[in-house]
Amino acid sequence: MPYEPPTHTVERSLRATTGAKIVAGVDEVGRGAWAGPVTVCAAVTGLRRPPEGLTDSKLITPKRRTTLAVELERWVTAYALGEASPQEIDELGMTAALRLAAVRALDGLPVRPDAVILDGKHDYLGTPWRVRTVIKGDQSCVAVAAASVIAKVRRDAMMAELDSVADCTGFGFAANAGYPSPVHKAALEELGPTPYHRLSWSYLDAMPRWRHLKKVRLSAEAAALESGGQLGFDF
């Protein structure tokens, strides 16, 4: 099924309405996984014509996606990646972990963007960033699509490398990238979670043998009291 190629329409709008000169597209991968980090890519592309076939990474075959990521890394004006670890996800919750990973990516760019195009409908970045959320931005916006492909390929490669780690043998990370799958579930039930698993995830509720390992994240109020600090913004 053919897809409309992404455009610079949103970026042009941001430039015209806000005066932004540098606009970054931001997308994440790994949000729904049981294991591994959540990875965010921030990409700046300018208004140049993108490589042929660019679209949401999930709509591209793995082979083409890998080739396209190499092209994109040379083609973009700049890009940077940020991650939040499974432990950070357990401690902070996914929304705050996404923000942490995104800020790390944006801070990794050589120049701070004037505005950010964020895939989806929820602004998990917030102030002081100037954010425009775009539903299916990874299909419609060039910079977000580029970020989508780079993030997906980088995280998949990292998860595939875990297949050679002793603790992770049998979990099928090279095929499932830490997402739910029959192989992943069977290995979890037999072997229990690895140091790369998210222990606050509900999959442990269905595994009586390992349920005692589940971590319960403190509420914002409890965390503030425990740390002796003031209650901050709960992302």
Structure, described:
- By secondary structure, the chain is α/β, with parallel strands linked by helices.
- The protein is 39% helix and 13% strand.
- The protein contains 9 helices and 5 strands; from the N terminus they run αββαβααββααααα.
- The chain has helices at 9-18, 62-75, 86-92, 94-107, 137-140, 142-161, 173-176, 182-191, 220-227, and strands at residues 23-29, 38-44, 78-84, 115-119, 131-134.
- It has a 5-stranded mixed beta sheet.
- A hairpin with an 8-residue loop joins strand 1 (23-29) and strand 2 (38-44).
- The longest helix has 20 residues, at 142-161.
- The protein starts with 8 loop residues before the first helix and ends in an 8-residue tail after the last helix.
Summarize the structure.
With 235 residues, this protein is an alpha/beta fold.
Notable traits:
RNase_HII/HIII, manganese, 235 residues, Ribonuclease HII, 5-stranded mixed beta sheet, EC 3.1.26.4, nuclease
How many individual β-strands?
5
**Which class best fits the helix and strand makeup?**
alpha/beta
- The outline comes out as globular
Main β-sheet, spatial strand arrangement:
3-2-1-4-5
pLDDT under 50 segments (min length 5)?
A: 220-235
The main sheet comes to: 5 strands, mixed
- Helical residues, percent: 25-40%
Mean pLDDT: 90
* Count of alpha and pi helical runs: 9
The portion of residues forming beta strands comes to 5-15%
Computed Rg: 19 Å
EC number: 3.1.26.4
Function: Endonuclease that specifically degrades the RNA of RNA-DNA hybrids.
Subcellular location: Cytoplasm
Binding site for a divalent metal cation: 27-28, 119
